[in-house]
Amino acid sequence: MKSKLIPAIVFTCLITAAFTLRVQAQDITSNKSIRREVAVTFDDLPATHGNLEQMKSITTRLLRSITSNKIPSVGFVNESKLHKPGQIDARITLLRMWLDAGLELGNHTFSHISIDRHPLAAYQEDVIRGETITRMLLSERGMTLRYFRHPQLRTGPTVEYKEALSTFLAKRGYTVAPVTIDNNDYIFADVYADAQARGDKVTMSRVAAAYILYMEKIFDFFEKLSVESLGYEVKQTLLLHANELNADYFDELVGMMKGRGYAFITLESALKDKAYSLPDAQDKRGVSWLHRWTVAKGLQMRPEPREPEFITKLYNANRR
Known about the structure:
Elements: H1 8-29, E1 36-45, H2 52-68, E2 73-77, H3 88-100, E3 104-107, H4 120-129, H5 132-140, E4 147-148, H6 159-171, E5 175-176, H7 185-198, H8 201-230, E6 236-241, H9 244-259, E7 262-264, H10 267-270, H11 289-296, H12 309-318
């Protein structure tokens, strides 16, 4: 675990939380029948926020954790973040760092476009603009740009829009990158970054501890939903974001996943699971494919675990 400056009272809370996770992990891994697999993906590259130095720091720390844990991963790029006057080459270098680490890049549209606010033609244009540099970087290494991730996991406000977009993406050679384990890591990350900017290490530590426990609940929820809707646990696909929180605590998140019996696989391997060929229900909201498969079978969507109340309050306060 990375060295972190944590006040004594918060450190005690973290130790308690870690002990709880360790007990849960021992209970889970003692069951030899559990064999779980997950593909880990990151959205909003080069990073969700920050100036060049902050983005570089996030990228460096996050890649260090990913590679040290030997996790194959795909990072989905918003190329609009590269176009900062005087910094374009430096920001492109951040994407090269992902490829140098043996990882893969995908298209997340140019501007993280809102599908509900733009006609299909504008959305398609944003997809094409979002592949220019990424495709070039992959080509330099003899790789092809093959994955697309919808911003906010929103695939279309209508069935007609969704189907037309799917056809367009397929013609451009894309495989859509679904997500089964969706979560609100961005909410925790927003609160964490705000506390970091204030130098509030107590809140940072409290948020981090709550984040790992929340993610444990999220995994448990989607594992059970998979069994209920599919009859077995699918090869999961996890969505995270390239932010300060995950840069600081991805090692701990990996420990939680290992405790639940997960092995880390490529996105390509995960998508070979038969579930990903199932019909997914049209839903204008951005939701997990496990919800979509559930609804397509005529079943009711169940509410996911939510972040603790103190996180919600801090997040809402930051946005006023």
